[in-house]
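Field reference: sequence -> structure
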Amino acid sequence: MVFPWLPLADCGSRPKFRSRIVGGNISKPGQFPWQASLHYQNQHLCGGSIITPRWIVTAAHCGIFIHIGRTVKK
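Structure field:
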């Protein structure tokens, strides 16, 4: 099958990395207190949601570099 409306040049290539969500807004620290940022080597790795004082839920692939018992930043 041929789909002439699909751009063939983009097939298999990654889009340019964008550091922001398209149309997103910059938030202030503390504006979303249930949101957590999981870091690895001082870099943001994944986001998570705080569900209790001791638990954060995140995507499964985000736990690859997380070491249980490490210091938690507040």
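Note: The beta strands are 35-40, 43-52, 55-57.
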